[in-house]
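Just curious. Invent one:
>
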Amino acid sequence: YQAAGNIRRTFDVELASIRDKKVMTLDRSAITGITVTAGGESLALTKISRPVASAEENPEGAAAPEQAVTAWITADSIDADGAVVDGMLSRLTNLQCDGFPEEGQKLDMSEPAYTLVVHGAAAPDTLAIYGPSGEKKFLATSSQYDFPFILTEWKVGQVKKTPPEVMGNTEDKE
């Protein structure tokens, strides 16, 4: 068989350019809780729905139907900063890595500096972030992906929130 033209460019590609970079996908509606671990501190949060009563009444005099708002609480029923939690989860919904370690590169994956566990209907999903692996790059692993990968400092900053930050206390932030 013959092909018209030069098709070499089609097949002459680097492995990194065709490798799947999606390392975590989450169904946000199925998430029931999260656990954040950083710097020796751990924080477990549970997702709840709270009814929000409306002051308006419909014309027949009956109360308007109640609406629900999502809240994240600790085991002691203390509210976390919902905007911070939602921001973290939105970044994880379809997390794509920024690259992969060089072949033969020595990887220090002894103890993660940060761990985020997302609990849902299925088995928990885990994202572990290790120390820096080069300039503004971090080594990470995911329970949904078999190999270590690299995330940029910006992407790590969007996902990595310490327990005090999740609770809305920004005074402890470095």
Summary: The radius of gyration is 22 Å. Helices lie at 8-11, 15-18, 82-92, 153-159, 163-166. Residues 82-92 form the longest helix (11 residues). The chain has a mean pLDDT of 83.
